[in-house]
Amino acid sequence: MNTRSIYLFLFISCIFISNALGQANLLNARVPQEIGQFNEKQNLANDETPLAYGYIDDRDILWSKTIWEIVDLDERINFPYYYPTDTLNLGPDRRSLFHVLKKNLRNGTIKEVYDDDYFQSKLTYQEILDKLVAIDTLEAGIEQLNAGEELDPQYINRTTITAASIRQYRIKGNWYVNKRLGELKYRLLGIAPVAPDVYTLNLPEEEQDLVELFWVWFPDARESLNSSLVFNNKNSSQPITFDHMLNSRRFNSLIYKEENVYEDRKIEEYIFEDALQQLLESERVKSVIRDFEQDLWNN
Q1: In angstroms, rounded to a whole number, what is the distance separating the alpha carbons of residues 187 and 206?
Q2: Would you place residue 104 in the very low, low, confident or very high pLDDT band (cuts 50, 70, 90)?
Q3: What's the rounded Cα separation, in Å, for the pair 299 and 297?
Q4: Does 11 score more than 50 pLDDT?
Q5: Residue 97 near residue 194, CB atoms below 8 Å
Q6: 281: which residues sit within 8 A by CB, 6+ positions away?
Q7: What's the mean per-residue pLDDT of the chain?
Q8: By the 8 A CB rule, do 214 and 125 touch?
Q9: Which residues, in sequence order, are CB contacts of 252 under 8 Å at separation 6+?
Q10: CB 61 within 8 A of CB 176
């Protein structure tokens, strides 16, 4: 066997070994409960602190543009943000993005959450829960109340928005040119889960109204998202974090708004009922951003 064949054999062996180690401590576990548990050295090696952005002086920004985008969860490339929706048979290390956001809002790890994409009206966790739950009384229950009787719990219909209800994520970010580095960079500012209004959740899909549930100030959520792993479909032994996924823009998106003199109006507000032209306008805005960097070096 020549040297080239030996290296090829070792390379293939490493691939098979990596795929076998899809979960931490999988091959060393004596009982199933030990799967996913890190040893002392692994705990020291796993740094859950997100990579710092670094300070950028306003004088170093040559050009910038703020845009809003839709991340549609029906697209296959965006599935890692949607799944898993059913976590009963999965370990605690695999959760959807909505589950991670809701969990950290509940325990207070994420504090900067707002009602709008300009981050002016702050929300409490209880106000967020009110948006996720609808409680309706059935007709039989109303008759009980009118008769002065105690309301039977079986006549109360409770509807809750879960991770499976999320249709989109809307993100707000800023593209800018750092003149010291001479390159175009992106900074994610906020993210919002989008789902049908809880009162229209049980209606047919064409009758549902999609609403933004809340807006999270992304820099405040980075530490929480960096400690939550995303399933890597190409190599399960090398999962990545939500913070890495979002900062590296590993998703497909559509621009639906850019900052403009017309009170930051949306594309659909000046191109009416023409999906093709709206898509072309979104691509035009994207081209303006991309071409600015190209023109910077051509002039």
Answers
A1: 34
A2: very high
A3: 6
A4: no
A5: no
A6: 267, 271
A7: 84
A8: no
A9: 71, 72, 75, 77, 78
A10: yes
Helices (H) and strands (E) in the chain, counts: 9, 11
Q: How far apart are alpha carbons 234 and 21 in whole angstroms?
A: 13
For residue 65 the two structure tokens come to: 């543009």
pLDDT in tens, 179-211: 888 889 999 999 999 999 998 888 888 888 899
The structure tokens listed for 68 are 């809003």
- The structure tokens listed for 253 are 């998106």
**Three-class secondary structure assignment of 109-166:** CCCCEECCCCCCCECCHHHHHHHHEEEEECHHHHHHHHCCCCCCHHHEEEEECCHHHC
200 burial (CB, 10 Å; 0-12 / 13-18 / 19+) is middle
Residue linked to tokens 């994420």: 110
**How many whole angstroms separate alpha carbon 71 and alpha carbon 253?**
5
Phi/psi of residue 236, each to 5°? -70, -15
Give the CA angle between residues 208, 211, 215 to the nearest 5°.
160
Count of Cβ atoms closer than 10 Å to residue 256 Cβ: 17
Three-state DSSP class for residue 5: helix
Residue 104 backbone zone (phi > 0: left; psi -120 to 50: alpha; other: beta): alpha
Non-local (6+) Cβ contacts of 179 within 8 A are 60, 61, 62
Determine the straight-line distance between the first and last CA of the chain, rounded to whole angstroms.
56
- Residues listed for the chain: 299
Quickly tell me which residue has 């790890």 as its tokens: 109
Q: What is the pTM of this model?
A: 0.81
